[in-house]
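## retry 2 of 3
previous attempt timed out at serialization; input unchanged, resubmitting
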Amino acid sequence: MAGILDSKQRIMDVIITTEGRRQVASGELRIEFASFTDAHTFYEASGSAGDIASDASHRLFLEAFNRPQDQIVLETDDVGQLIPFKGGKVEMRGNKLFKPATPSIKNPSGKRLEIMTGSASITAADELLQNVYDNFTEQMIIGSADPFSDNNEFELSISQKDEDTGNPTFNITDNVPIPQNEISEANLVSVESLYEDMRLAHLPNYQYMPPINKRDPGDPDGTPLGDYPKLNQEPVMTYQSLMGHLAGKESIDVYFSNTSRDNNIIAQMFDVRPDSIEKLDIIDFGEIPDDDPYSPGKQVFFLGKILNDDDDDPTFVNLFTMIFDVS
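## retry succeeded, writing output
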C-alpha cells in the first residue's frame, strides 16, 4: 500500500501489508508487478467552467495504512492450509468457514462466530469468493480502456449447464469418469510421486539424468557410473499424447465470449465441501504444440491436490485438466 504525501519532500509513503509481512517472514516475498489506484484521491473541480482541478496543497492527507480489503488472493501455507481470510461477514480459518452466530441469550451481540456446515457452508463459500472479487474491485486500480476493443466486458459461454443452477456439471457414476475395467481405488504409496510424475517429466529438474564419467573424444557419451533405474514416467510432449491420456473422460467447453484482446486471466480453483473449503494446487505444464495452423499452441494446467504418502513423498493427485486455446 502506498500514498503520495508531498510532491516536494517525500514522494511516496510505502508500507508492507499484513500478507506482505507474512511473505517476508517466510522468504517468499517477490515484488513483480505494480498497480496504481485513485481510491483515496479527492477530486474537486475549480474555475468558472469547472474543468480545472482545485488546489490540493492545503488538504490533510493520511499516511498509507493496511486494510482487510488489501488481501485479494487466497494464499496457502507450506502444508496447504488456507491462510485466515475475512471477507464481509464470512471468515475462513484452517479451511473452515465461520459467520457471526445468530443473537441469543448466551450471545446477545451476535459477535461470536459459529462454524458453517452443510448447505450453509456452500452458501458461505460463495459469499466468501464474491468478497474476494469485491476486494479486487475496491482497489479501484487505474487502467486504460482499449480504444480498439468493442467492449470491456468479461463474459463466459458454457457448452453444458445444469438446468437448475446454470453451472457446468460432470456426471459421476459407476462407469464415469472411471470405467469399471480400470483402477478405481489406489493406495497413495502406489501413486507416482512428484519426481516420477509425467506432468513434470519435461522440466529439467525432473528429467532422468544418471551420473556419468567425464566425456572425452574417445567416449563422447560418457561412461555411466552405475546402473540407475529410470523411475520417471514418459513425458507428455505432444497434444495427441495428452488427449490419449484424457480419452474417455468427460469434457466441457467454456468460451470467452467477451474479453480483452490480451486475455490476461487470473484464476483460483477451490474444492468446496459441506464442512470445508480447500484451494486446489495447479501445475502449469506450459504451452504444448498442436497441428492447428491458426493456434499458437495450447496452454495446459493440471488441477488437483498434493498429498504426502507414508514415506512423506509429495504426490500430485490430478482432478481436472484445463486446456486454454485461441480460436
